[in-house]
Amino acid sequence: MRKLRDADFAFYAEIFPCLSWKEVKVLSLYCNGWNRNKVALYLNISVSTVKSHLSNAMEKINVESNSELKPMFFFIVNGHHRTIENKSGSCCCCHCRRFHCCQ
């Protein structure tokens, strides 16, 4: 397997502007079929850190369970979202009045 570059995650970072760079990496790897242990090993972080990043990402995108996480991720990634920039310059992604990632 080739080493992934930051450019490989840039697409996801644009879609999820409310997430930190590490949260974007963890979320995208996890939702693309990697288990938590493999993500931790690849990113050279602990499994508990992976869980923490996933938990933070889930909170920011308003997902309550792991069973919702992957379908929501692909729903958003496949273009069923819109990004709105508010007056303060911060962005939020919204879909179906349910997805909010504003800080």
Structure description:
Helix 2 (21-31) packs across helix 4, helix 2 (21-31) packs across helix 5 (66-77) and helix 3 (36-43) crosses helix 4. The longest helix has 14 residues, at 47-60. The protein is globular and about 30 Å long. It has a two-stranded antiparallel sheet with strand order 1-2. The chain is built from 5 helices and 2 strands. The protein is mainly alpha-helical. Residues 83-92 and 94-103 have low confidence and may be disordered.
Could you list some keywords that capture this structure?
2 strands; 8% strand; two-stranded antiparallel ribbon; 103 residues; disordered C terminus
Outline of this structure?
The chain has helices spanning 7-15, 21-31, 36-43, 47-60, 66-77; strands at 82-85, 91-94.
Q: Which secondary structure elements does this structure contain, and how are they paired or packed?
A:
Blueprint: H1 7-15, H2 21-31, H3 36-43, H4 47-60, H5 66-77, E1 82-85, E2 91-94
Helix pairs in contact: 2-4, 2-5, 3-4
Q: Going across the major beta sheet, what is the strand order?
A: 1-2
Query: Hey, roughly how much beta strand do the residues contain?
Result: 5-15%
Helix count, DSSP H or I runs of 4 or more residues: 5
Structural class: mainly alpha
Name the shape in a single word.
Answer: globular
The whole-number mean of residue pLDDT values reads 79
**Largest sheet properties:** 2 strands, antiparallel
Helicity range: 40-55%
